[in-house]
Amino acid sequence: MDSGRPDTLPDDYYLRNFHALVGYVFDTYQDLFTSEECTWYESIRQCDESAQRLYVRLLTRKGNVFRLSRLKYPEIVALGDAASQLASHQLSVTSAPDSLSTLIQAYTKPELLRMLSLETLKSKSRVELVDFILAANPEDQHQYLSTLQNADSWISINGHAFWNLYNLCFFGNLYQDSSEFVLRDLGAVEYEDYEIPAGFRAFKSRSHIDAHMRYFECVALWDLVDRKSTDALHSLLTQLPEVIPGDLTLLRRCDRLRNSIARQLERLGDLDGALRVFSLSMHPPARERCIRILLAKNELDAADALLEKMLSAPIGESELQVATRLKKQLSKARGLAIKKEPRYRPETSTLTLMASEFRVEEVARKFYSQFGNCSYTENCLVNGVLGLFIWDIVFHPVNGAFFNPFQYAPADFYDPDFRIRRSALLEDRFREMDDPLKFPARVMENYVKHEGKSNPLVRWGGLPYELLSLALQRIPFTHWRAMFERILSNPRENMAGFPDLVLFKTDDSHYEFIEIKGPGDTVQQNQLRWMRYFTEHRIPCRVVNVKWSVERPNHEPL
């Protein structure tokens, strides 16, 4: 069957995608850009097509210095003329680099041995050869430099900082780039066709742009910093941008990096420094780490005060769970009697199976399949049904939710405001669950209509049509609604932790979720939270601890 997806792309695909991205940003943000940032794109448009193609080809490659003889682009005619034209518009430099180390990187080891008459060193590794060249006396280094410079024609590309700026303004981040266009055009990724208000901007001001750019620069520095140096870590912290009121994305990003740096300071023994940094963060596990540090410093009153704040206003169920455990530790540190509260224990059984080379979940699934339809679904089934049921609400044109065509989710999907801003739509949609026909009909209709499209809740590979149809028939609507409510209360936290398997028995209408644990494995905290919730809402679920046997076991009945 013809998929309708192209096997190849036209030879100008990269140039067309470049103009789609940069042209959109130029039209949308030019009032916030400097004259140099605007002139960069204007200069590109003044070049002929061959020069533009060469520029975009090299701009998106690693590095910025290239030998013309090594460039092989059949669709670009007269590479030398294109390079010269780019240089005339200050988009490139065609003179040879004046750095010996830079020149060396442009040549292969055999080329260096031959051109520099160093064949006697061919037994050395490339690293050793480079070290030898760079350690040569000044006269030899000068000769090496001249030889490598004159051995080829050169082009060095300017404008990478501008390219990063335009990417940031288009995607709202620097994780994505123009390869998104290619993946879309090849059909590898399909995005929903949501509405983007004309002229809407991911960033409202230049200060917003600069702050987010500074954050990504700090992320790059985090990858390079000496993580064993407390001074280097503190220096990096001073470079983080200041928080901008109302910019929750920037706050979350900076807090994530701040938490990572603070945790490293804690590991290095700089408890006071770590405590100061964690106290600046608004996101978990900052308060947990603060309390643990205060306990380590025996500052019990300060730990108690912060713990009370966690207990009275936890950031999600996971932080409340952590706070409950910390309260016991604090009571123990004060020498107080700890009131034992009944610990939740999910229904648990043991299953002995023949030892296998396959994953324990797959072996258990095959065993339970003799009693009905058993599927490995983990986080795919319930999240997926919710995503299909509220598909149009997820992609509803809420102000500020969408600003480029390559978003798999609205910008606020993981924020508390996601549900609040769509509360009326969600309430109306959930009323459909009172109708035994509307709910499954909408889910199945959206499955057919949107199959393959990106959605933050839907993982198509784990949601086959037959399983979806059976689940809608067998799982009560009250169970679906209860699970949907918990996911939407905190998508970032509650989209994970579902049991591995779902079993639909053949002989009755019963179903159950089953969490499989192999030898030595234990139930995770997010899984326990879901199981407790299942118990509260009478949703059937149990844990099965699998034991391996080299002899054929006698299974206990279900």
Outline of this structure?
By secondary structure, this protein is α/β, with parallel strands linked by helices. The chain has 27 helices and eight strands.
Describe the structure in your own words.
The mean pLDDT is 94. Helix 14 packs antiparallel against helix 15 (286-296) and helix 16 (300-312) packs antiparallel against helix 17. This protein has helices at residues 13-29, 35-46, 49-59, 79-88, 100-105, 109-115, 126-134, 138-150, 160-171, 179-185, 206-224, 230-238, 248-267, 271-279, 286-296, 300-312, 317-333, 360-368, 381-389, 391-394, 417-421, 423-431, 438-450, 465-474, 477-489, 491-494, 525-536, and strands at residues 65-67, 92-93, 154-157, 348-354, 372-376, 501-505, 511-517, 541-549. The protein is built from 27 helices and 8 strands. The protein is 52% helix and 8% strand. The longest helix has 20 residues, at 248-267. The protein has 3 domains: 13-165, no CATH class; 203-333, Serine Threonine Protein Phosphatase 5, Tetratricopeptide repeat; 348-549, no CATH class. The two termini are 44 Å apart.
Structure keywords:
single chain; about 550 residues; alpha/beta; Serine Threonine Protein Phosphatase 5, Tetratricopeptide repeat; 3 domains; five-stranded mixed β-sheet; three-stranded antiparallel β-sheet; 27 helices; globular
